[in-house]
Amino acid sequence: MTALFKRDLKVLFRQPRGWLLALTFFVMFLSIIAIALQGDIRVLNRIAAPLIWLAAIFSLLLTFESLFAANIQNGTMEQYRLAGLSGLSIVLSKFVTVFVTSILPLVLATPIIGVLYQLSVMHIASIALSLLIGAPAVLAMGLASAALVSGQRSAGFLIILLTLPFMVPVIIFAQAGIDAYPREGLGNAGFLALMGFSLLSFAICIPASAAALKINME
Prior knowledge:
mainly alpha, globular
């Protein structure tokens, strides 16, 4: 799996369109919102957390369509199958790769957005932590959706349609954790629920993605 992860990482860095597009969208979307609200700090402070989360979700959705479809179309998946690689190894490699190349840059970009929105250090830290804890749930569900429709062309809309309904609890738990963080710290109920949801999503969606990928490869 380590060799597979290194290969996926090299491919993404050689063809950075996906994760660069996601990061650019994240920054541009939030910057445009700030401009549209004419820099009203009171409003920006109040809606910063849900806006950043929406931007992160939409940014990640942009990366899901090509995760498996391109490899199936160019024969890479067939080579993986002939090499005896399991679907679980392939999915786990994709999960780690996207986490490193897409989620971590969004987390690192959050302080820049926080400065733009004139958020306090505590508020910036709580939002960044919520992304770090909750984004794996978004990624796991996105991988499952991408694996389910990997045999179809132009399946981006289907992936969005399958994934978005499950984002509601993620945003609810994230907002609850962000609100409670100044009083209760990292161990507040919202963040614990968000962490549990991420673990549950990982436990269900990763094996489901591997099974769906196996079916589409046959």
